[in-house]
Amino acid sequence: MNKNAIAGATVTVGMMLAMTACTTQESGQPHAATSSSGASPTSQVGGKNALKKCLTAQVKWTLTRLAEPVNKTSSHLAVAQLTATNTARHTCTFDGYPWVRIFNGKAEDTIASPTTPAAAPRRTLAPGRSVRVNLRYSEARDRMGNCYLPPETSAVQALPPHADPRDIAVLVPLTDTHGKRLPLNVCQEKVWMTPPVDPGLVGGRHSG
């Protein structure tokens, strides 16, 4: 074989090897990054061990009007404590702020806004354990004696964080500390919500 033939054969073999390498790299890249389920092996193992989020069906809500405001400097604001209790037999995570809507059955409503822009910490709820947020709102009526949401028809709806869009929010009645039903006097449009606190904490202080 002459030198030109050898050179031509070398170039041809080199091109074939390069094309084979490129084909193998391109076809193998997605499989190297993810498994067949779309997650890497590490995240898939972590997913099996990870706690499930608290679902709407397993959360029991209560809303209690506190006798005294938690923050003495905000005495003009009413404070109601919204409690979510895990009623399931397994532990779940309450990952963020709940969704809370106050409405009067007509056109007027308001969604509770976090008091701080930072993301709420993740809370882990064992069976029977609770997490709490405080709702702060004004009960000061306008000059005509009216409220933004009339107390006679106002109601509260709640959903846990990251609820399924198809879930129906739960109606949560307002009661006093003894369980007696109370009217909900939301006289201004804004309702503020504090970050969720650990079980056993009431208004940022240990209960009992």
Entry keywords:
alpha+beta; elongated; disordered N terminus; about 210 residues; 2 helices; four-stranded antiparallel beta sheet; Immunoglobulin-like; six-stranded mixed beta sheet; disordered C terminus; single chain; 2 domains
Question: Which strand order do you get reading across the main beta sheet?
Answer: 7-13-9-3-2-12
Tally of helical segments: 2
- Domains, number: 2
- CATH architectural designation of the largest domain: Sandwich
Q: Examine the coordinates and then state which fold CATH places here, giving the name of the CATH topology of the largest domain.
A: Immunoglobulin-like
Instruction: Please summarize the sheet with the most strands.
Output: 6 strands, mixed
Shape: elongated
State the share of residues found in helices, binned by percent.
10-25%
The chain-level structural class is: alpha+beta
Mean pLDDT score, rounded?
Answer: 73
Overall description:
- The radius of gyration is 29 Å and the shape is elongated.
- Strand 14 and strand 15 (205-206) form a beta hairpin.
- Strands 7-13-9-3-2-12 form a 6-stranded mixed sheet, with no helix packed on it. Strands 6-5-10-11 form a 4-stranded antiparallel sheet, with no helix packed on it. Strands 1-4-8 form a 3-stranded mixed sheet, with no helix packed on it.
- The longest helix has 31 residues, at 3-33.
- Mean pLDDT is 73; it is low at 3-46 and 201-208.
- It starts with a helix and ends with a strand.
- It is 19% helix and 29% strand.
- With 208 residues, the chain is an alpha+beta fold.
- The chain is built from 2 helices and 15 strands.
- It has 2 domains: 3-49; 52-206, Immunoglobulin-like, CATH 2.60.40.
